[in-house]
Amino acid sequence: MNFVTNLLLAAGYIIQVSLGSWHSPDYSASEIIGRIDSVSQQIPVEKVIIGWSVDKDVYHQVGRYLHQRGISMLLWMPVFAETEEVCQNTPAVDLWGRVPSNYDLAAGEGFRFNCPTNQQNLQNVVALYDSLFSGCGFDGVFLDRVRTQSFVAGVSGVLGCGCRHCVQRFAAEGVDIAAVKAEYEARGDDFFSISSYSPDGNHGFKNPLAAAFFKAKGRIVSGSVAAVADSLRARGLQVGMDLYAPFMAPFVGQDYSLLARHADFIKPMLYRLTFAPAGMGFEYDLLRKAAPAATGYPQLQMDADFLHTQLKAMEPYECGKYPGIEINYRADIVPTSPQYVSESLAAVLSHGFNGVVLSWNIMEAPCAIWNR
Questions:
Q1: What is the pLDDT of residues 57-109, one digit of tens each?
Q2: 47 with 71: CB under 8 angstroms?
Q3: Tens digit of each residue's pLDDT (9 = 90 or more) over 284-340
C-alpha cells in the first residue's frame, strides 16, 4: 500500500450529506445509505453529518443503518443564517444600520445573517432542535453558519453587527462602536491595514480601534455560539462546529480559543478549490477587493504549503480536530479532482489530528475520487 492509502486507513473520517435546506430531501434514504455504504467499505467512517431537511423519516432510516454499524449521526444545522423558513429572526445590520447584501449561489441559496446577540435568535436555534429533530436519533449537532457575514458583502459584511444590542455588547468589551464607525469613515481602506500577517489569524492591525473591534467581535459572536453549544451539550449531544480557515476567522467573529472550549470537535473549512463563501482564496480575494488600499497583506497561493500553515494553526486547540477538505465537484464552484483530494488528504493527515471531514456533500463526489 502507498503512503496515502496507509493514511486513509489510519484516520477517522466524518462525511457530510447535504439534503438541501428545509424542504424535502434531495436524496432518498436508500440513495444516502447506498453511498455511505460504498464509502465506508473503503475508509473508516466515524460520523455522518446530515441535514437539514425537516423530513424525519430519512433520519430514522439512515440513523438505524448507521447505529447498527457503530457510526454516529449528527444533525447539520445552521445558527446565524438560513433559518428564516422555519422561524422568525432579527437580521444583523452593519455599523450604519443596513442589512448586508446576501450572497446567492446559482442554486438560489441565500446567506442573510441574523444578529448574533439577539436572545430570541439564540433561543430559536435550540428550539428548532427540540421541536423538529430531538426524536430522530441524532447523537449530536453540527453547527454551521456560526459567524457573521464575510467580505462577500464587502466592508458592510464584516463591520457589524451594529444593532443596539450589539452596540451595548461591544461597549461592555470596551469598544465604542460610534468611534469605530467614525474611524473607518475617516481612514477608509487603511482601517484594515496590518503591520504583520499571521497564518493563525492573529494579524497585527495598525489601527488600534480596528484591533480592538475585531478582538471584541470574536468574543461576542463566539460567546453566543458557545451558549448555543452548551445548551445542546446539556441535552447529551456531541457538538461540532464549522469554522472559517484560521487566517480569515477573525473577520467573521470566530475566536478559535473560545469556540474550542465549547465544542467536541472543530472543522475548519480548508477549501482551496472552492469559489464560494468559505473558499480560502475566494474569501481572501474579496478582502483585498473590498479594501484595495489596505496594506500589509501578502500574496497567498492556495497550495499545499499554505494548507500546512492553516493546519499548524489548529494544533494548539484541545478539542477534537477534523479539518474539512472539499471532495464534491461542481465545475463552476468546486472543480476538485482525484489528485487534488489526494494531496489535501496527505497534508491534513500528516499532522496527526483525529481525522478529516470529507466536505461538503458526499452525494456529489465523483466516483473517481475514490479510486486509489
A1: 999 999 999 999 999 999 999 999 999 999 999 999 999 999 997 765 444 45
A2: yes
A3: 999 999 999 999 999 999 999 999 999 999 999 999 999 999 999 999 999 999 999
Q: How many CB atoms lie within 10 A of CB 24?
A: 11
Q: Note if the pTM is more than 0.90.
A: yes
Contact of 263 with 255, CB cutoff 8 Å: no
Pull the grid cell for residue 304.
Answer: 499545499
Q: How far is Cα 351 from Cα 353, in angstroms, rounded to an integer?
A: 6
CA dist., res. 112 & res. 82, Å (int): 7
Cell numbers found for residue 185 = 469613515
Q: What is the dihedral of CA 254, 102, 156, 190, to 10 degrees?
A: 80
Measured from the Cβ of residue 293, the count of other Cβ atoms closer than 10 Å reads: 10
Distances (CA, A) of 38 to 35, 41, 44, 281, 360: 5, 5, 11, 32, 17
CA-to-CA dists, residue 152 to 104, 106, 286, angstroms: 10, 15, 6
Contacts of 183 (CB under 8 A, 6+ apart): 191, 207, 209, 210
- The C-alpha atoms of residue 313 and residue 219 are separated, in whole angstroms, by 19
SS3 sequence of the chain: CCHHHHHHHHCEEEEEEECCCCCCCCCCHHHHHHHHHHHHCCCCEEEEEEECCCCHHHHHHHHHHHHHCCCEEEEEEECCECCCCCCCCCECCECCCCCCCCCCCCCCCCCCEECCCCHHHHHHHHHHHHHHHCCCCCCEEEEECCCCCCHHHCHHHHCECCCHHHHHHHHHCCCCHHHHHHHHHHHHHHHHCEEECCCCCCCEECCHHHHHHHHHHHHHHHHHHHHHHHHHHCCCCEEEEEECCCCCHHHHCCCHHHHHHHCCEEEEECECCCCCCCEHHHHHHHHHHHCCCCCCCCCCCCCHHHHHHHHHHHCCCCCEECCEEECCCECCCECCCHHHHHHHHHHHHCCCCCEEEEECCHHHCCHHHHCC
Whole-angstrom distance between the N-terminal and C-terminal Cα of the chain?
A: 10
